[in-house]
Design goal:
Layout (H helix, E strand, L loop, with lengths): L10 H13 L19 H11 L3 H17 L15 H14 L3 H8 L3 H19 L2 E7 L6 E3 L14 E5 L6
Antiparallel strand pairs: 1-2, 1-3
Helix pairs in contact: 1-2, 3-4, 3-6, 4-5, 4-6, 5-6
């Protein structure tokens, strides 16, 4: 039986793979570089970014803007790199995106981003939780308390009643400004 044929990689795939080394540190103890802060990526770097994360730089920046306030306001104690510094919001978003985009093991993602294996899981859970909160915010219907101008959640206050013909809805979510 003949040995299996080796798949030929296209010139474009080899070029993209070469450019990926510019985007992400490969060594586990690599410095926490700001590879995502370069807003003027060349076409090759933009393609490499999209190949690596399966989203454009513009979409990546938008996702970061959605979760920035929540992730930056409550940094979990374990989200540090191997040098002991807190992970930036961009890196917290990049880690689960890479894991989801590639299907790589936690060990591979850990090595690529210079974080611990448990940090990969913790970051993924944290970012997904925030994205779910932004995508599916809690909503509450408010009603008027009798003989007052005060409105309360009708599920929490039995005295609150709906105003006929008007729906007063509270949406518990941040308002993106970008």
């Amino acid at each position: 039986m003949a040995p299996p044929k080796k798949s030929k990689k296209s010139k474009k795939d080899r070029k993209l793979k070469k450019n990926l080394s510019l985007l992400v540190p490969v060594e586990p103890k690599a410095a926490d570089s700001d590879w995502w802060d370069n807003s003027s990526l060349s076409n090759d770097e933009e393609e490499g970014f999209k190949y690596f994360f399966r989203v454009s730089k513009k979409s990546f920046d938008y996702i970061c803007s959605l979760v920035r306030e929540d992730l930056a306001s409550r940094p979990p104690s374990g989200l540090i790199n191997v040098e002991g510094r807190f992970l930036s919001v961009e890196k917290q978003v990049a880690i689960p995106l890479r894991r989801l985009a590639s299907g790589e093991s936690q060990v591979s993602v850990r090595a690529a981003f210079g974080v611990g294996q448990s940090t990969v899981s913790e970051v993924a859970i944290s970012v997904i939780r925030v994205l779910l909160f932004v995508a599916r915010p809690r909503t509450f219907v408010h009603g008027n308390l009798p003989n007052s101008m005060v409105y309360r959640n009708v599920e929490q206050d039995a005295n609150a009643s709906n105003v006929p013909g008007i729906l007063i809805l509270e949406i518990d979510a941040p308002i993106p400004t970008t």
